[in-house]
Structure formats: C-alpha cells, structure tokens
Amino acid sequence: MEPPDPADLRKSYKGARLDEPDLAACPLDQFDVWFADAVGAELPEPNAMILSTVTADGTPSARTVLLKGYGPEDFRFFTNHGSRKARSIAVNPHVSLLFPWHPVHRQVIVEGIAERLSREESAAYFRTRPHGSQLGAWASEHQSSVVGREELERRYADLAERWPGAVPLPDFWGGYRVIPSSVEFWQGRPNRLHDRLRYRRPGPGESGEWVVERLSP
C-alpha cells in the first residue's frame, strides 16, 4: 500500500472567529478562557505543550512537556536539571511554548524567558506527584543520556524498595517558569484566512502593559 502524500492531506477549518474586541486585556487571562475550552472539549492532554530551546551555538531542539501551572505572570513546567532542555536553558533562557489544540482548530504560541523556580516551589509540586512518578524522577537521574531498558527498570526497582513511602525531592529535579514576552492566539478559519492575534510587550514610545496586533495568516 502506497503511503499517503502529505501534500494531498487537506482540511477546511471552520472555527469561530477571533476579533480584537473579544480578547482579554492580559494574555494569561485569554489563555485561561481557551484552556478551559480545550479541557471542556475533552481534548487528550490539553496541557501538553511543545517546548523549544536553543543551545549556545544555535542548535534548536523541541519536545513535548506538560504544563503544570500558569498565571498571572508565567507558565510552569518541571523537569530534570541535567536534561537536554535544562542544559539549553542554562546557557540560553529564550524559549518557545506551543499548545497544539488541533481538534478545536486552535493553537497558542508563547515566546519568553525561562528561569528556575525555587526549591521550595519545586518541593511543593513534587509532593503532589504519584509515588511512581516520584520514583521515576530518581530512576532517570541522568536524563537524556544513553541507557538500557533493563538498567532503567533495575534502578526503579531498587528505588521502590528503598522508598516504599515518602520520596525526597531530588537535587537534580525542579521547576521552571516561562515569563512571556509575546503570546499569539491562532484560530483556524476557512480558506486559510486564519485569525492570528498576538500580545507583545510594548516597545519604545508605546504605552500600556501589552500591545495587541493582528498578524497576516
């Protein structure tokens, strides 16, 4: 069977329009509305987002992570501080987040600066994680490094025996907050005339906390 030609895959977007008067004054408030819509539409993993980072030499990389908190000033996620994404953030804190809500013909694109959360904030979230996920964080201490499946499972089993109850927060694990400099709300429309409204921080000579602009689709 011949694989489908990607150029032949077409879909007409028939989403509701997005106009400037409809937007909240703050992008985090607008995200609150759209995130509630995504959850209400029962999308799979509505808090899944594609995090893109760039190394010091300009090499980009992207992966899916889960949003674990937001508002009123940031978006938050948690990871291993030795992972590829964390190492990139350490040398270049400029990142992008993409929420791909395809079933409702929407996406949100965030650009901003990532910075670490305090150990206290990371510990508070770590305590809410399922016991297995807490052990998994320890088992993948050397995240992004080459490992065999048997070795990984052996580590997990040893840790489960060591900590059948409370699991301490690893020194190498914690949270990040992304402080946005721009947030774009993309609504699919017919004939590829999509609505793209972007909030950005004002530049020299501009007033207000956010400037809203319509971008050509």
How would you summarize what this structure contains?
With 217 residues, this protein is of the alpha+beta class. The chain contains five helices and nine strands, in the order H-E-E-E-E-H-E-E-H-H-H-E-E-E.
Topology:
Elements: H1 27-40, E1 48-54, E2 60-66, E3 69-70, E4 75-80, H2 84-91, E5 94-101, E6 106-116, H3 119-126, H4 131-139, H5 149-162, E7 173-187, E8 195-200, E9 211-214
Antiparallel strand pairs: 1-2, 1-5, 3-4, 4-7, 5-6, 6-7, 7-8, 8-9
Helix pairs in contact: 4-5
Describe the protein's architecture and organization.
Helix content is 24%, strand content 30%. The protein is built from 5 helices and 9 strands; from the N terminus they run αββββαββαααβββ. It has helices spanning 27-40, 84-91, 119-126, 131-139, 149-162, and strands spanning 48-54, 60-66, 69-70, 75-80, 94-101, 106-116, 173-187, 195-200, 211-214. α4 (131-139) crosses α5 (149-162). The protein starts with 26 loop residues before the first helix and ends with a strand. The mean pLDDT is 94.
Q: What is the number of strand segments?
A: 9
Biggest sheet record: 9 strands, antiparallel
Oligomer: single chain
N/C terminus separation: 35 Å
Class by helix and strand content? alpha+beta
Residue-averaged pLDDT, rounded?
94
Number of helices: 5
Secondary-structure element order, N to C: HEEEEHEEHHHEEE
CA radius of gyration is 20 Å
Percent of sequence in beta strands: 25-35%
